[in-house]
Write a structure and sequence with these properties.
The complex is a heterodimer of chains A (219) and B (255). Chain A has 219 residues and is of the alpha+beta class. In chain A, 59% of the residues lie in helices and 8% in strands. Chain B has 2 domains: 91 residues, 3-Layer(aba) Sandwich (Glutaredoxin), CATH 3.40.30.10; 133 residues, Up-down Bundle (Glutathione S-transferase Yfyf (Class Pi), Chain A, domain 2). In chain B, helix 2 packs parallel to helix 4. Classes of the chains: A alpha+beta (219), B alpha+beta (255).
Chain lengths: 219, 255
């Protein structure tokens, strides 16, 4: 029986975050794919009764929920490259940006089109500013902010190409676009996790479902 | 306290009486003026920070903000959210109360407020996040809504409290025998929730439904550090009433 299990979903950026972190630390784990849209497993509901969501990390039979909480747990439990910096002030800055990403950016994606575009643009500008002179948010190598910012690739870059939504253009956000390329091409991501093609396929399927639902509801 | 400027290495030639505990003086000296807290007396996120600083015996300067007329310092130190609390340590700002709590714990090591064990830390962080994202919001919703909506909102809030009730059962504090990070995070349920209940004319923390959680609130406010820093209830009531009136005036202006 594997010591470490991850309940997740390949289409979920939140669950991907945990996979990146586990790979960084070289931790062996069993991935349990959850069908989050149709039917969640009894185990998932048992281990995350409060939110009933992925990801859930199970370590020695004990569950940890909420991707950001799991990332800190992984950093504290296993040796290897640091996910958070060592200095308390830098750690505070990382935690601040992580909260900003999850509370502001993720939320702005859930809203209606025009308002979402405005808000997202404003927040992305702030983020673009923090990349000054750095390859990654974490400096020379990826850190917690890079891991948490992964959804930018999921929800902006790929849908942008598919549906022509032009929020994160190269003209407006040169540094963020560069960051996305660096992130998707860095060894941890490239060698271990599904590439753009698979993500694109996943999104295409999801988009078709949405388009069909939207067409049906307009009637 | 005025210490002579050229103290050198605190040698015996200094102009201070012998009875002075020199170590203590050095400690006080390095603490004062180094730590500032921008906040308001009635805000519970600010209270969290005050409690933590007091538990760690860190000297700090409290700067009261007028939230309707924010100071240039606040706007400079927290440009993204423009909110309190903001901790300024050696001129460097930290914003977001839970982030500040962790920073305080990592910077001043004596009297740790987070548990040592990684799994327990994860558990504390999970529940603190839950409290801020679900409990506070749902209580606020219940406070400001009316009629049928209010009933539903009260129901939702109480469902959230259920989870906390389970967590505190059989324990004196969320932190165990002594208060810790999670107690500070949930501390608003001791006084601020009372104020919300008064403003919203409702009862959320019903003792019959939440006996352990209710008992915890009584234990919490009796902790000396907490007890001596609680703002008067009527101030917090005015604070929430003011906030509610402001929100209502905004929506009235829109329509």
């Amino acid at each position: 029986m594997a010591e470490v299990k991850l309940f997740g979903s390949s289409g979920s950026p939140f669950s991907r975050r945990i996979e990146v972190a586990l790979k960084m630390k070289g931790v062996e784990y069993e991935f349990i794919e959850e069908d989050v849209y149709n039917k969640k497993s009894p185990l998932l509901l048992k281990y995350n009764p409060v939110h009933k969501k992925v990801p859930v990390l199970l370590h020695n039979g004990k569950p940890i929920c909420e991707s950001v909480v799991i990332l800190e747990y992984i950093d504290e439990t296993w040796e290897g490259p640091s996910i958070l910096p060592k200095d308390p002030y830098e750690r505070a800055m990382v935690r601040f940006w992580v909260k900003f990403l999850d509370e502001k950016l993720v939320r702005s994606i859930g809203e209606e089109q025009e308002k979402a575009k405005e808000e997202a643009t404003e927040f992305l500008k702030i983020l673009e500013g923090t990349l000054s002179g750095k390859k990654f948010f974490g400096g020379d190598s990826i850190g917690m902010v890079d891991i948490v910012a992964n959804f930018i690739a999921y929800w902006f870059m790929i849908p942008q190409e598919l549906a022509g939504i032009d929020v994160l253009t190269k003209e407006k956000f040169p540094k963020l676009n560069e960051w996305m390329n660096e992130y998707l091409n860095c060894s941890i991501i490239k060698e271990n996790l599904p590439l753009k093609d698979k993500l694109t396929a996943l999104f295409q399927a999801r988009f078709q479902a949405f388009a069909a639902a939207a067409a049906a509801s307009v009637k | 306290m005025n210490l002579p400027r050229n103290r050198g290495s605190f040698g015996p030639h200094l102009l201070i009486e012998d009875e002075v505990d020199w170590d203590q003086v050095v400690q006080i000296n390095t603490r004062i003026g180094e730590v500032k807290l921008l906040g308001t007396q009635s805000s519970f996120p600010c209270a969290r920070i005050i409690w933590a600083l007091k538990l760690k015996q860190v000297q700090y300067e409290f700067i009261e903000e007028d939230l309707f007329n924010k100071s240039p310092l606040l706007l400079k130190m927290n440009p993204i959210y423009k909110k309190v609390p903001v901790l300024i340590h050696n001129d460097k700002p930290v914003a977001e109360s839970l982030v500040i709590l962790e920073y305080i714990d990592e910077t001043w090591k004596p009297n740790p407020i987070l548990p040592e064990d990684p799994y327990e830390r994860a558990t504390a962080r999970f529940w603190a996040k839950f409290v801020d994202e679900k409990c506070v919001l749902s209580s606020w919703e219940a406070m400001k809504s009316e009629g049928e909506e209010k009933k539903k909102a009260i129901d939702t809030a109480q469902q959230m409290f259920e989870h906390l009730e389970k967590q505190i059962k059989g324990k004196k504090y969320f932190g165990g025998e002594q208060i810790g990070y999670l107690d500070l995070a949930i501390g608003w349920m001791s006084l601020w929730l009372n104020a919300m209940e008064e403003v919203g004319q409702m009862k959320l923390l019903v003792p019959e439904k939440f006996p352990s959680l209710s008992e915890w609130t009584h234990n919490f406010i009796r902790v000396p550090v907490i007890h001596e820093s609680l703002p008067p209830l009527e101030n917090v009531v005015s604070y929430f009433q003011g906030g509610l009136d402001y929100l209502r005036s905004l929506s009235a202006n829109k329509s």
